[in-house]
């Protein structure tokens, strides 16, 4: 997904772009008549001014342009002429990409769009299901600070960790979701869709690990399948990697990094596996299981819950259309009831046909043994056998197989929304054929960044430069190689900036320098659609079909006019934006 993929694909429909490609060929072929460009190094600095991607796309999609570029040195008379011609092609590429900037930036991505990985029509959806946390209830940044502080203090008070840890505060922009943690080596890192570590994103404590050290530890950058996290992202049964897929895990990653940092700073010996268990099992788990976080949120709900009116509007719209709705959450009833009273009102249960709390997902989707129990308004657990799931009642635990038997809600007529790709969505799409919608709140921030002129300039020139290197690399004479090597160095110097613009430590949630992240790979597999929040549904009617863009495979030519540049598919634009596509 990239903000420039749609406008560029649209540009390719117009003859002026084809004319640009022809002009580029003519420029390359005629460069031997003009030798006025001085020989100089052109490494692109950090400002990335006035660059764009258009001609880079044309280089890769126009065979004639490629052949012309590849022949730039074929008739060279001497090394100086060759160098000047190559730099002239570089200058012309930069100029022509710059000419397309205004068109690209005019077609920004709407963060209220629903993006499709798999074709899905709302006409077919009769039943809508929801998780609660970060799906119906969105939390402010205060919640992460709360979780961090409580877990940190549990380590010190209950597990006798050093008092000095209390000096550490939560760092809001340190980690991103989807990172992997090597439990045995105490390293936090980002891994791409092909199991390769993104160098520059490996952290021990709060400090980056040098690339050379990472390569030495892992004998390269590849992480073998047998030590990757298991299906649910956990480190178990010999898997040494843990993947953090939950939004609640952001304070956990930060706390792990802070404790590691403290031990290293004070030269304290420690066993990384035990540290991980103390933080994960004893501290973070206690924050949730013992209800500490729940009680704190309930006591000051306005401080922690935001965007409640948007969730309410979605539920009212679905109810008005006669859609069935249900709620399956791992949170306890008192916590959900307090939050839903705030978001919807005291009659919130009237909107749902079934409400299930403390479901224990993902076990809920696989375990056939746990029965449903009814819970009273005062939280009393009733032990009578459940023969049907009634509207207005609250049920605890249970399992999906019994849920399917009692409701008959099977297959692709059901659409379930959740924020956790593994615990909420994976089993539903792989085993039960439900349609799935991933809620990715980080999308709003990332799309906002991708729509900025700085990002558009940076990425479009990076693509153009990559296309230029690809075309010119066929020349093996020393003079040509020296120039191409400078371009390669420029490209390498730009790559860290594509990371830093999103997050200085770990970059984008969705991409490494070029490849999709491991998170993106799982998102594309387990979610039919994804969006920043369920409020995006307000932009669509119930006849709408979401179409993923037919992204060309590497061996395919882009015969169709619109295509995305990633394996995830591109946006299914909101109706109000369709005129811009």
From TrEMBL:
Region (Disordered): 562-581
UniProt similarity note: Belongs to the 5'(3')-deoxyribonucleotidase family.
Magnesium recorded as keyword: yes
Name this polypeptide is given: 5'-nucleotidase domain containing 3
PANTHER family: 5'-NUCLEOTIDASE DOMAIN-CONTAINING, 5'-NUCLEOTIDASE DOMAIN-CONTAINING PROTEIN 3
Keywords, alphabetical: Hydrolase, Magnesium, Metal-binding
InterPro entries, per the entry: HAD-like_sf, HAD-SF_hydro_IG_5-nucl, HAD_sf
Gene (UniProt): NT5DC3
UniProt-recorded Gene Ontology molecular function terms: 5'-nucleotidase activity; metal ion binding
Keyword field contains Ribosomal protein: no
Highest taxon of the lineage: Eukaryota
């Amino acid at each position: 997904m990239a903000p420039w993929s749609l406008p560029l694909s649209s540009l390719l429909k117009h003859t002026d772009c084809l004319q640009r490609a022809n002009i580029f060929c003519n420029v390359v072929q005629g460069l031997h008549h003009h030798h006025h460009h001085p020989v100089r190094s052109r490494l692109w600095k950090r400002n990335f001014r006035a660059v764009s991607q258009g001609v880079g796309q044309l280089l890769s999609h126009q065979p004639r342009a490629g052949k012309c570029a590849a022949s730039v040195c074929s008739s060279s008379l001497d090394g100086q002429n060759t160098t000047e011609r190559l730099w002239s092609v570089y200058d012309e590429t930069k100029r022509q990409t710059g000419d397309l900037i205004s068109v690209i930036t005019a077609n920004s991505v709407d963060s209220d769009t629903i993006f499709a990985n798999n074709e899905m029509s709302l006409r077919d959806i009769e039943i809508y299901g929801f998780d609660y946390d970060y799906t119906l209830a969105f939390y402010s940044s205060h919640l992460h600070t709360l979780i961090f502080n409580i877990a940190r203090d549990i380590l010190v008070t209950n597990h006798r960790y050093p008092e000095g840890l209390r000096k550490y505060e939560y760092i809001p922009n340190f980690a991103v979701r989807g990172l992997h943690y090597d439990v045995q080596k105490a390293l936090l890192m980002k891994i791409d869709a092909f199991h390769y570590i993104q160098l520059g994103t490996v952290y021990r404590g709060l400090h980056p690990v040098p690339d050379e050290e990472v390569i030495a530890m892992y004998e390269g950058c590849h992480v073998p399948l047998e030590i990757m996290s298991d299906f649910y992202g956990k480190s178990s049964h010999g898997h040494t990697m843990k993947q953090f897929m939950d939004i609640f895990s952001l304070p956990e990653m930060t706390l792990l990094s802070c404790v590691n940092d403290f031990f290293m700073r004070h030269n304290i010996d420690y066993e990384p596996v035990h540290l991980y268990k103390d933080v994960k099992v004893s501290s973070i788990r206690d924050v949730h299981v013992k209800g500490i976080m729940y009680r704190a949120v309930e006591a000051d709900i306005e401080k922690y819950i935001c965007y409640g009116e948007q969730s309410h509007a979605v539920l009212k719209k679905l109810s008005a259309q006669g859609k069935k709705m249900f709620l399956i959450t791992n949170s306890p009833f008192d916590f959900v009831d307090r939050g839903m009273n705030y978001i919807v009102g005291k009659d919130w249960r009237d909107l749902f046909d079934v409400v299930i709390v403390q479901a224990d997902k993902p076990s809920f989707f696989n375990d056939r043994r746990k029965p449903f129990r009814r819970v009273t308004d005062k939280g009393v657990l009733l032990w009578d056998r459940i023969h049907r799931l009634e509207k207005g009642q609250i049920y605890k635990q249970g399992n999906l197989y019994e849920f399917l038997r009692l409701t008959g809600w099977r297959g692709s007529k059901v659409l379930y929304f959740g924020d956790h790709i593994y615990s909420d969505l994976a089993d539903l799409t792989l085993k039960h054929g439900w349609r799935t919608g991933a809620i990715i709140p980080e999308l709003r921030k990332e799309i906002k960044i991708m729509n900025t002129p700085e990002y558009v300039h940076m990425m479009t020139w990076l693509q153009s430069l990559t296309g230029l290197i690809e075309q010119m690399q066929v020349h093996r004479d020393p003079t040509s190689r020296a120039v191409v090597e400078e371009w390669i160095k420029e490209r390498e110097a730009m790559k860290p900036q594509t990371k830093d613009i999103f997050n200085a430590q770990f970059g984008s949630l969705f991409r490494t320098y070029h490849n999709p992240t491991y998170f993106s790979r799982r998102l594309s597999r387990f979610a039919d659609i994804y969006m920043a929040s369920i409020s995006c549904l307000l932009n669509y009617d119930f006849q709408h079909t979401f179409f993923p863009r037919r992204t060309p495979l590497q061996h395919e030519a882009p015969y169709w006019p619109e295509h995305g540049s990633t394996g995830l598919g591109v946006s299914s634009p909101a109706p109000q934006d369709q005129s811009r596509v």
